[in-house]
Amino acid sequence: MNWLAADYSHLVWWLDIVGIYIFGLSGAMLAVRRDLDLFGIIVLATAAATAGGAIRDMMIGDQPAAMLREPSYLASAFASGVTVFFFHRLIERANRPVMLMDAIGLGVFTVAGTSKALAFGLSPAAACLIGVLTACGGGMLRDLLVTEIPRVLREEVYAVAAAAGGGLVVLGHALNWPIVLTACAGAGLTIAIRLIAMRYGLRIPRAR
Amino acid sequence: MNWLAADYSHLVWWLDIVGIYIFGLSGAMLAVRRDLDLFGIIVLATAAATAGGAIRDMMIGDQPAAMLREPSYLASAFASGVTVFFFHRLIERANRPVMLMDAIGLGVFTVAGTSKALAFGLSPAAACLIGVLTACGGGMLRDLLVTEIPRVLREEVYAVAAAAGGGLVVLGHALNWPIVLTACAGAGLTIAIRLIAMRYGLRIPRAR
Amino acid sequence: MNWLAADYSHLVWWLDIVGIYIFGLSGAMLAVRRDLDLFGIIVLATAAATAGGAIRDMMIGDQPAAMLREPSYLASAFASGVTVFFFHRLIERANRPVMLMDAIGLGVFTVAGTSKALAFGLSPAAACLIGVLTACGGGMLRDLLVTEIPRVLREEVYAVAAAAGGGLVVLGHALNWPIVLTACAGAGLTIAIRLIAMRYGLRIPRAR
């Protein structure tokens, strides 16, 4: 967190905790559907929740990775696995809220990843890529671990929403927008695009 | 090795060499079963033997990764591949010894990973996670490379044994136990849990 | 690039750009065959083109990874995806040229990876391994992302060609050959072995 003004590190910490918990739920639910045991549930929850940030930190060189320095991050991932173990039927029924939460997680992690990359001095394009990787990397590993083609490759307008939000963060950074405004705008754009795409079934063109 | 007192680095070196060779055998045997050629055998042996440690080193920031600094590590992985290429029938028949060796490798790598993470100043929970990743990461990559769901997710009480051993290492570290005692206790607990679980078919609860 | 004399960094930059574009094509073509959308095409192109170098940089500790510092690398990967989106039928028909280009990419990346590892002070065996990883890592991730067993494990004499070229680079380095001669010899050997193996259907022995 030393790359952020102290005032905002609190905000980022909360965003991270929430994003980790949400993505952890998605990993744990997949584990339940694949009939994995309690340990498998926690492994998939942790992978989905923390792998994106870990890849980001290894690629930009912020080591030990943030998930290793912040015990609360691991605790949040662990908690999501335990939550699903006991309440997966409840969560299964609440499909709409889960999709909403997943969109929020996508927005939060996009902003966290892009902002950190910019703070490490990366170029706009690289920062945007790191934002997308942070937001989508956990889900990719989650799906690969149960040998499914990652949802980010199958699902329309998922990573594209992250790329758009990351682009807005980069723009706000270049124009010196206030940091909280930039963060909210980036996350809001990502969430909005994702929700609109789900609602109206938007699709990206394929090669003919 | 510079993070360990010189006296113990010899011990750790031997543990690593043995663990790499054992896990290398598991990778090479899988390659033979999948009818891969000699090169594929060596690739899977190397992946199974060294990926766990490489992931650990990238996440904690000990670079170049130990497997790149110690030519003997690569030599050990290579040797396991060649061994299997020539003697895979012999090894196939010796199923019980191989399972025993795999349990030993699990214990050794758990202790090596957890200890190194503690030496790098990680928190107990993070050190334990790194221990599990070191012990299970190679097998995960091995299985993913032939598009199987990693054994650590399918097999009962595998990573849990590593987590328990890692926890004991963390405890010994906190209580200032002698380093060799801590190492033996951690590896012994991991091996014992793994062997008992196999012998009695212990299972971890699933979500209903 | 700061690990190379300024005179050669231009050469390496061009080699990298060409190699990234070629491997990007291979990733994008696979995405088209799997009926992924435009975004999936760009993701697979980027993964195939840059993952090998990113793994190399994370393992040797050159961070942020080169692909993050050089916007032109990302641009080249992006361009390959766009090329395939519009012209994939043309490329599909030109199977022979694509195989030739893939062999060239293999040679170029082997030399780039091995040379950089030597510049970072790695041992000959480790440098050779990094060369193979740089050349084959992108293709491995590309195939894993669509849950196929990586081509490098199925295809005869693919990574072996990279290992041979990397070995020659290590030899040239040890004997103080001129850097350009070493690079050309390493890339040429890799390309030649790969093309001869394809032309004559050379195979590597399997375990009986």
From TrEMBL, chains A, B, C:
Domain of life: Bacteria
Entry coiled-coil feature ranges: none
Keywords, comma-separated and alphabetical: Cell membrane, Membrane, Transmembrane, Transmembrane helix
Membrane topology, as annotated: Multi-pass membrane protein
Chief location of this protein within or outside the cell: membrane
Alphabetical list of InterPro entries matching this protein: Gly_transporter
Subcellular location as annotated: Cell membrane
Pfam families listed in its UniProt record: Gly_transporter
Ranges annotated as spanning the membrane: 12-31, 38-60, 72-91, 124-145, 180-202
Record-annotated Glycine transporter domain positions: 14-89, 100-173
Family: Belongs to the UPF0126 family.
PANTHER family: INNER MEMBRANE PROTEIN, UPF0126 INNER MEMBRANE PROTEIN YADS-RELATED
Protein name, UniProt field: Trimeric intracellular cation channel family protein
UniProt organism field: Pseudogemmobacter faecipullorum
